[in-house]
Amino acid sequence: MELHAALNDFKRSQGDPRRFPGERRSTAGRFSGLDDRLVHVAPDGSIGDYSYPLSGLDGIERSRFGIDVDGDARWFDDEDAEQRYVGDTAVVETTHTVGEATCVQYDVTIGRLHLTHVAFEGEPAFADDVSLLACVGFAPEGRAGRVGQLWHGDTVEVHHDAEHDFLAASTEMAVTGQVPERFAELLAAEPTDFPRSPTDDRYEEARLSPIVLAEIELTGSSPSATVATLLSDGDDRTAALERVRGDVAAHADHEAVLEAGREQARDRLPDTEPDVPDGVADLRALALLRAPTGARMAGPEFDPFYRYSGGYGYTWFRDDAEISRFLLETDRRLGLGLEEWHAKSTRFYVETQLADGTWPHRVWPHNGALAPGWAHGRVESGESDEYQADQTASVAAFLATYLRRVDPDDEQVREALAAALDGLDDSLAADGLPERVQNAWENMTGRFAHTAATFLEAYAAIARAPVDDALATRAREGARAVYDGLDGLWVPERGCYAMRVDDGDVDDRLDGSTLALAAAHRAYDALERVDDARLDRLTSHVETTIDGLYRDPDGPVEGLARFEDDPWRVQEQDAAKIWTVTTAWGAHAAIALSDLLAARGREEAETFEERGRTLLALVGPGGPLRRSGGYLPEQVFDDGTADSATPLGWPHAIRLATASALEEPVSSALAGAEESAVPRD
Q: What pTM was estimated for this model as a whole?
């Protein structure tokens, strides 16, 4: 997102009680792209790239489509449009009503190519006088200035330095340039609408502009045309021109576009459809966020200027490793054939591990290079609390599980685990709790229950992995230390574990991230038995946390807040917003606890399973927190307005794993209550 677009949105959105001015939102519309380009198709059919984290290329900043009827421009809007995915593909179908005519738009992104096919249903009364209008503003290397256009007859090239972006059509196309906002327009109170009039007294400015206005001939009995855009690193102009021309010609009709989407889905999504409701939507959302390296960005970048957040278009090792672990768990149950996904994630983690055995705050998913962040304490010189130790623990837990479940002969993973154990031990204090670090929500420092939970799970996973005896013994000792150390966070007056201890002060606020304690104890129970007193405390903690964070406001949504008194991004709302991550986490924690209770023959097991099902329904198909396209946004306002990164990968993976776990009824676990092994582990 470049500054021109941010300022225009700021002007349009300021004063809106549910919008943060200057952002580039994806809370409505759908995405296409299962490779290294991610294109958002808004409800009005406009398209824009969110591709940089996946490819290192910026592509389309803004666009607008419409039709010209006898010289009269009729731009598509979202008031008379309907949108859906075509089957299980990432092809987006948007149906526009233009007067009495119906126009259908198909969008699909294949590799670095995006295809937009527009066709009328039937023969409109104005067929002889209609053409397609496409106003497309590129931002090569994120630039709005020092950009130029090259017109190659039937193809336009927009470039800055390394990045070159191309636009072509399947039919005759007439092109003009569009001058971006001038300084006075940027400073004006009202936003600038595009396209502007082509008449201008400085003709060269149109060639020194990132914005292309194309009028494209519609042909056939049901008039149609295809527009293609291709992102390129600029190495070979001739090859790029040949490709975009060839691809747009090969996809001149809608059936060719649909078949391209079907073929891509067959290649990129599992052959076996998940045997859980809406499982394809979850996998598609996770695939959209995935780079060819196997790493995922947390969500589409909506705040690139860090105006209201620290950005989202990066790989966090916490989120990504948790997603990897949930996918591995789901794949084991449902047999989805995700071996390539697991292997690529594993390689990415091995290659990005730091020399001290830890992982950094965040990296670029397309190449693993260090990305901007505020918790790179282990990269910087000197001692620092600005390190998120739970990220290292999450990766270690996944790698250990991968080594045990998938490839016990992988020596690189074994070496990475040995180094990771050193990194974990270095952050573990003598009292069995991780030392002072940043928390999972990245907004405070202290000694956190969530960090301890991730350490408990990581140590238990390493101890059970096929590693040498000395390493397994160290990991077992670490697990025992954390298990005992958690007593220091117990708050008897509230019946829960504290969020954190900070400089000796106990912060006893309820925190959704502490729900990770349930799965962590389930993992520990597979190593050494969780005693009855601890199980009582854990039961109280999960129940207290879910009850205390549950919100059912006067509106269409309900679910769990992030933590007590959470003030982030509430705007004019009085109470903390509902988060899909914590709601899904609550469901997963309830089911994990249900397993532990069932293994002991305790009657509360069925109660917590039902609790898990109820929470899962909120993020499941038809649930109030699930949005268009099956997406889960990070947050929602009480009136149901989605906010922040959409789709967010983390809750999709938690939901999928929890839904697959529920395929095994708790009654079967109760039948094996005398066994210490956890039924669903």
A: 0.95
